[in-house]
């Protein structure tokens, strides 16, 4: 903690340091914490845990803008620019980061995972944007107040989770919130969830191109979603804030069949 007992937070994202949701979350955290921004200079959405060998960094009114990925920002932040951080927060992302299938490619969630490997707890914060279509989706959620449900939830957890012992079991939290008009109430109810296993990627081969579509988002927006209560997707469909406590290291299990194959190798 800082000299005044306030938490020191490294704030990053994948939408870029000048994104509306990033500034909304910065302002919410700045009300109780020492916040240093170390975020991509431009949009780095869906890059996963991609890392660079080197990246230019420039000072920014909120901290530092890095010409690299969210992973670059966390490594640079925790090891050089903001090494005394108590917590890393990533977001607020414009668009949900939900389901086990999506988490691996999310730059927002990957920043939290990178932090966990450094031994620093983290919170990824994202907002489910509803309405519109692919043509005008980017025009939605253009005002900081549009992110108020997500930033309220993210700030609450950033303020309370360290002292509550949450990170004695979880390495990071993946938080997803509805837009205000889709919240069941304000502040929206917060529920602890697990990532959905829903998967509906499709490919269509047409002439010399392959078109890829993810059916998750259409099903989410329509409300016609198969998950029961308990998953991150279902919580958002029901207008609630989803919080999934997750761990970063990959787990391993012993498998008798693989043990037998290894023993027979070379025989």
Spatial strand order of the main sheet: 3-4-2-1-5-6-7-11-8
Q: What about the largest sheet?
A: 9 strands, mixed
User: Helix amount, in percent?
Assistant: 25-40%
Rg over C-alpha atoms, rounded to the nearest angstrom: 19 Å
**How much of the residues is beta strand, in percent?**
15-25%
Report the count of strand segments.
11
Could you tell me the CATH topology label: Stationary-phase Survival Protein Sure Homolog, Chain: A
CATH architecture: 3-Layer(aba) Sandwich
Approximate shape: globular
Number of helical elements = 8
Order of helices and strands: EHEEEHEHHEHEEEEHHEH
Give the rounded overall mean pLDDT: 92
Low-confidence spans: none
Q: Tally the structural domains.
A: 1
CATH 4th-level superfamily:
Survival protein SurE-like phosphatase/nucleotidase
What's the end-to-end separation, in Å? 57 Å
CATH class bucket:
Alpha Beta
Structural class: alpha/beta
């Amino acid at each position: 903690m800082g000299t005044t007992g306030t938490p020191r937070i490294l704030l990053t994202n994948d939408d870029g340091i000048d994104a509306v949701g990033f500034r909304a979350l910065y302002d919410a955290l700045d009300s109780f914490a020492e916040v240093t921004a170390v975020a991509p200079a431009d949009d780095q959405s869906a890059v996963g845990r991609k890392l660079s060998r080197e990246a230019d960094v420039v000072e920014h009114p909120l901290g530092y803008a890095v010409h690299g990925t969210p992973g670059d920002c966390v490594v640079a932040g925790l090891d050089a620019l903001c090494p005394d951080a108590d917590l890393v927060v990533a977001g607020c992302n414009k668009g949900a980061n939900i389901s086990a299938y999506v988490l691996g490619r999310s730059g927002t969630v990957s920043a939290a995972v990178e932090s966990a490997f450094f031994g620093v707890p983290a919170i990824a914060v994202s907002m489910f944007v509803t309405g519109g279509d692919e043509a005008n989706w980017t025009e939605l959620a253009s005002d900081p107040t549009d992110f108020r449900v997500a930033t309220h939830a993210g700030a609450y957890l950033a303020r309370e989770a360290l002292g509550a012992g949450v990170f004695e079991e979880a390495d990071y939290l993946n938080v997803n919130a509805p837009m205000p008009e889709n919240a069941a109430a304000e502040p929206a109810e917060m529920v602890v969830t697990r990532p959905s296993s829903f998967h509906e990627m499709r490919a269509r081969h047409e002439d010399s191109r392959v078109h890829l579509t993810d059916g998750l988002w259409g099903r989410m927006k329509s409300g016609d979603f198969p998950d029961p209560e308990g998953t991150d997707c279902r919580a958002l469909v029901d207008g609630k804030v989803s919080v999934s406590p997750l761990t970063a290291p990959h787990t391993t299990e012993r498998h008798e069949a693989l043990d037998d194959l290894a023993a027979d190798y070379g025989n």
